């Protein structure tokens, strides 16, 4: 399956996909060689991620083909409904999916999301507002939520 490595403000990012859609977008915890020529199937994803990081894009319009169980895919579909700049708790997400008792399974599916940023698992927080659990690291989750915040901190100097 075609793949490429790009540099983002949060580290090197690997994108995989084919003519059927984007299968994964993964932030890496190591330095990698940036891809010289991006496969044509991945160009739109690279452009849209760049626009997201520049603050231009608030919603992705990509054909997605993540691999997962039916339950995981159901959770990921629901994650796509969480608007840019908003957060939802794991409990609220479980309620939206129709089973408040499935909170742990929902949290687990959230953590297995293969489409970093594109399916916005970073917008899911603890019921108390805490930044609980994030496969990419809590500092990245914090950065993403601040990036999407409608009230940006401005410097006085």
Question: How would you describe this protein?
Answer:
- 31% of the residues lie in helices and 16% in strands.
- It is of the alpha+beta class and 157 residues long.
- Helix 3 (90-96) crosses helix 4.
- 25% of the residues are buried.
- How far do the termini sit from each other? 48 Å
Largest sheet: 3 strands, antiparallel
Structural class, judged by helices and strands? Answer: alpha+beta
Number of helices: 5
Enumerate the strands of the largest sheet in spatial order, edge to edge or round the barrel: 1-2-3
Oligomer status: single chain
Coarse shape = globular
Mean pLDDT: 93
Order of helices and strands: EEEHHEHHEH
Structure, briefly:
This protein has helices at residues 43-53, 70-79, 90-96, 103-111, 138-148, and strands spanning 3-8, 11-18, 21-27, 88-89, 124-125. It is of the alpha+beta class and 157 residues long.
Q: How are the SSEs ordered, and which strands pair?
A:
Elements: E1 3-8, E2 11-18, E3 21-27, H1 43-53, H2 70-79, E4 88-89, H3 90-96, H4 103-111, E5 124-125, H5 138-148
Parallel strand pairs: 4-5
Antiparallel strand pairs: 1-2, 2-3
Helix pairs in contact: 3-4
Features:
5 helices, alpha+beta, three-stranded antiparallel beta sheet
């Amino acid at each position: 399956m075609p793949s490429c490595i790009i540099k983002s403000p949060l580290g090197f990012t690997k994108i995989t996909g084919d003519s059927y859609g984007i299968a994964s977008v993964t932030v890496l915890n190591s330095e990698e060689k940036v891809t010289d020529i991006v496969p044509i199937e991945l160009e739109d994803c690279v452009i849209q991620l760049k626009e997201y990081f520049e603050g231009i894009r608030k919603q992705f319009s990509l054909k997605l083909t993540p691999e997962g169980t039916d339950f995981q895919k159901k959770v990921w579909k629901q994650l796509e409904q969480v608007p840019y700049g908003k957060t939802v708790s794991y409990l609220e997400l479980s309620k939206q999916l129709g089973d408040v008792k499935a909170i742990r399974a929902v949290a687990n599916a959230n953590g297995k999301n293969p489409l970093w940023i594109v399916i916005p698992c970073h917008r899911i927080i603890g019921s108390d507002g805490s930044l609980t659990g994030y496969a990419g690291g809590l500092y990245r989750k914090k950065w993403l939520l601040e990036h999407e915040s409608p009230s940006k901190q401005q410097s006085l100097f």
